[in-house]
Amino acid sequence: MLRRLLVLSVLIATPALARDALGTFGQWAAFRDPRAPRCYAIAMAAPSTLKREFQPFATVAWWPRQQVRGQVHFRLSRQVRPGAPITLSIGGQRMVLVGGGADAWAADKRGDAAILAAMRSARDMTVQARDGTGRGFTNTYALEGAATAMDAAALGCAQLR
Questions:
Q1: pLDDT digits 0-9 by tens, 18-33
Q2: Domain locations in the chain?
Q3: What's the predicted TM-score (pTM) here?
Q4: Cα(69)–Cα(72) distance, rounded to whole angstroms?
Q5: Suppose 152 and one of 15, 22, 29, 44 were both cysteines; which one would form an S-S bond, judging by CB atoms 3.0 to 4.6 Å apart?
């Protein structure tokens, strides 16, 4: 767990002093960056022995100035083959994501809302895609603590403008 948190802190990038840790909740953590301003919940994907080009992570972000609330983003472990579908499986639901390179998002605000609702009641979620060579890959996330981290991030940005 400590190793995961250390890697997670590296993912947050610089300047480290600009971010306030709002807490760690299960496999998730929440942060506030008053300079941006933004707040987000973040988790790393479960470890894998398979090839990874990037350290995969999932975020749920709030950007008060842009009036963005609960935007879901995935950094995938590999570059996605152009035109290949990206699918999120969560709580018995399958949702198509949009993206390119090594990033994926919900298609719109309704998609974000559906993902957040499913995250609150599921145990895990999995993103599936095909890499540039056509090989399938998955990134799996434990959702223990996700709801609390999302709530902490939302509250952390409630007063930011």
A1: 589 999 999 999 999 9
A2: 2-156
A3: 0.87
A4: 9
A5: 22
